[in-house]
Amino acid sequence: MTITSALFYTAQTIGDKGSDALKKGQLNQAERLFARAARLDRSEARYPLNLALINSVYFREKGDRTYYTEALSYAALAQSLDPYNLENNAMLLRAYKLLQRTDLQLKHARE
Question: 89 lies in which domain range?
């Protein structure tokens, strides 16, 4: 799918609002905003990456395996979209740490 400049701008704007909500600790709102941005721009890694982090936090707080599975899925998608971005890689390592997946932390650190 080719993204138009209007969709790109809309996704960026929504993603920025998601980042603001995340900074304020408003995880539910941030999750909704990042999910919406991810649907609009499927090529941007930061949206699924933030969804991976949010779901990792939910898993740690609630212990629900659904969040664990979602976090791993979003992390894999983010890594596939932008595998060489150091900032994204650091966030992926943080998500894996929250999920207590040292095996994935080590594997990712070696790649």
Answer: 5-110
Q: What CATH number does the domain containing 14 carry? A: 1.25.40.10
d(CA 53, CA 75): 8
20-65 pLDDT tens trace: 999 999 999 999 999 999 999 999 999 999 999 999 999 999 999 9
Total domains in the fold of the chain: 1
CA angle 42, 47, 51 (to 5 degrees): 120
Overall pTM surpassing 0.85 (yes/no): yes
Residues 6+ apart with CB under 8 A from 60: 98
Q: What is the rounded CA–CA span in Å between residue 75 and residue 95?
A: 8
**CA–CA separation, 7 vs 18, rounded Å?**
16
